[in-house]
Amino acid sequence: MSTDVGSAGHSRTAAPVSRPVRVSGQHGVLQVFTAAVWRTMCSEDWKGHHANVACGQLGFPSYVSSDTLRVDLLEEQFQGDFVSINHLLSDDKVTALHHAVYMREECASGRVVTLKCTACGLRTGYSARIVGGNMSSLAQWPWQASLQFQGYHLCGGSIITPLWIVTAAHCVYDLYLPKSWTIQVGLVSLLDSPAPSYLVEKIIYHSKYKPKRLGNDIALMKLAVPLTFNEMTQPICLPNSEENFPDGKMCWTSGWGSTEEGGDASPVLNHAAVPLISNKICNHRDVYGGIISPSMVCAGYLKGGVDSCQGDSGGPLVCQERRLWKLVGATSFGIGCADVNKPGVYTRITSFLDWIHEQLERDLKT
Ligand code: ARG
User: Fold this and answer.
1) Tens digits of per-residue pLDDT, 1-14?
2) pTM of the full predicted structure?
3) 20 CB-near residues (< 8 Å, 6+ apart)
4) Ligand 1 centroid vs 155 CA: distance in angstroms?
């Protein structure tokens, strides 16, 4: 196979990938990496067992739903190369999808497989009413977690499964002591909250985290006992691979961080609407002048005034896509807070999907 780069829009990749299964694009179609190319899974011969195998390869214990979608409704980049399940293999032989597929030029069924490994991104307990100022109401950001070191709120985090919280590496790098951390979820006020505290079983920060430049500023915390989901406590969806969130899209960040530069953490959970800013603009010499890497995403206003701040780190930057809320960023840094030409910088979650799935899968196997 040649390294045929550039054939318009096809995700041709010559380099081997660490994770040969992914869920892609706005519809969440299943793709398998075989013979040097990402190929979309045809629906023929697809069964629930295969969906469980696929989700297992992504670090989830089982699948939640699997549907089919007409090929012509797919984004063009996923319409070029296909695979289908080798129907000669019995279920017990199928333990890894990339070893159980045939290459296909077209899907005989005309349909491909969509996959969901976790129920997420809905806030069932929240009905939009006028919120006083920027204070959040209970169940408005049900994936928001407060990460507390020796009982003090230090950082935010986002619930992605009953056991896992996404946060920033800089929150935990110097405080790599799982026993000293507790996590609270399903609360607005840090002061008079009856919300229980959860113990942390382990902390994983990105092995290529760069403290100086805040590259790869992402970490995971695993809880000692799983969360019980209800209206106040819900996981946020991870984005799909190759999913794009356009510049200017209005997204939301939330946290107990200070409400003014240099201030104390806020006792109540606040939120702010912040539009996404392109890396090109964010790297402009008047803005961050080249320190923004492709695995970061900026959000906020160049005119200042609205931003995340100290104490919000690790917390969510979420965008809504057809009803579902997705985790687009984890609060990472800024110069000052809400200053002119210094919008908030967030770790871009789509850059770390493989890393997240790798950690979850490794943990599932042990
Ligand atoms: N690093 C900060 C923290 O530890 C988050 C800063 C976000 N700053 C900003 N201007 N958006 O909480």
Assistant:
1) 333 333 334 445 44
2) 0.93
3) 32, 33, 34, 57, 96, 97, 98
4) 9
Q: What residues are in contact with ligand 1 under a 6 Å CB criterion? A: 257, 307-313, 331, 333-334, 337, 344
Angle subtended at Cα 324 by Cα 322 and Cα 328, rounded to the nearest 5 degrees: 105
CA atoms of 69 and 360, how far apart (whole Å): 28
- For 33, phi and psi rounded to 5 degrees? -95, 110
Confirm if 205 and 217 have CB atoms less than 8 A apart: no
Query: Which amino acids are annotated catalytic?
Result: 170, 217, 313
Q: How many CB atoms lie within 10 A of CB 98?
A: 16
Cα of 176 vs centre of ligand 1, distance in Å, is 19
pLDDT tens profile 234-277: 999 999 999 999 999 999 999 999 988 888 889 999 999 999 99
